Amino acid sequence: MSESKPPLHFSHANSFPAGSYRQFLQHFEADFDVGYIDALGHDPRFPVTDCWPNLVEESLQYIERRYAGPVIAVGHSLGGFLSLLSALQRPELFRAVILLDSPVFGRPVSTALWLGKRFGFIDRLTPGRGTLTRRKTWPSKEAAYQHFQGRGMFADFDPACLRDYVEAGTVTTEAGVQLRFEPEVEHLIYCGLPHNLPSYRGQLQVPAGFIGGSKSSYVRRSDLSHMRRYFGIQLRKVEGGHLFPFEQPAMAADEVKQMIARLLNR
Fold it and tell me: Which end of the chain, N or C, is less packed with Cβ atoms under 10 Å?
């Protein structure tokens, strides 16, 4: 724990262990005391349930234990939601919150999520549909890299980021390698996507910013308006998709630093 650098707590996206973000996080290490939970949702003390209250508690306990004072929280996707929910619950632990393509849903999306959970079609509303059937083992890390390269959501990854994902996101087995982030946990996280965010309107006491990818399919104009109007969140759009911290890590880090400066009036 560093006393000379301001603490920065990073929270990762669903299925991407924090170690996958090495290219992105290395840009903060000179100026910040960077910490993170490497694989959220995998501690049996904090099982994944609807709207993720245990993951919020996992984050809060880590933050209280790891840092000497209030943190700047930076979260990508899942991590952004958890950062926001944690700051709503314990604002004294936070100096600022920055959401990376984690839109705070308004009532239309939140109602759809609630209906999807109640009537059993939540998988049609989230990216979770294919998680339980996707491939999760390969004979080697190189084979895993070749499998992901140019495919689907990995198509625009910086090559070094993809290497880091394969390195941090797999574990060695007798037969080769397998995904470290359990698909069952990933699926539960998607199925528990919070439908209660509108209930927190007007309650955020921490300065917050949102940085979204220009090509992201998860950010709706109505949600941007909702964030600005009811949470006072500063908005910024950058080139890239939902996974822009992996596509252009240096650019993403620079945008986060600029947002930190704006939020803290530096």
Answer: C
Does residue 2 belong to any structural domain of this protein?
Answer: no
Q: pLDDT tens digits for 103-156?
A: 999 999 999 999 999 999 999 999 888 899 989 999 999 999 999 999 999 999
Range of the domain at 220: 7-263
pLDDT greater than 60 at residue 1: no
Q: Is residue 18 in a domain?
A: yes
Please, which residues have CB within 8 angstroms of residue 208's CB and are 6 or more apart in sequence? 84, 87, 96, 97, 98, 99, 231, 232, 233, 234, 263
The count of domains in the chain is 1
Residue at 1 is within a domain: no
Rounded to two decimals, what is the model's pTM?
A: 0.96
Secondary structure (DSSP) of 214-250? TT-SS--HHHHHHHHHHH--EEEEESS-TTHHHHSHH
State the residue for tokens 């990376």: 100
Cβ(57)–Cβ(71) below 8 Å: no
| CATH number of the domain bearing residue 246 | 3.40.50.1820
R_g of the chain computed on alpha carbons: 18
pLDDT at 3: 57
Q: Which candidate, 51, 183, 88, 76, places its Cα nearest to that of 129? A: 183
What is the rounded CA–CA span in Å between residue 128 and residue 122? 9
Question: What is the Cα–Cα distance from 259 to 266, expressed in whole angstroms?
Answer: 10
> Each residue of 242-265: pLDDT tens digit?
999 999 999 999 999 999 999 999
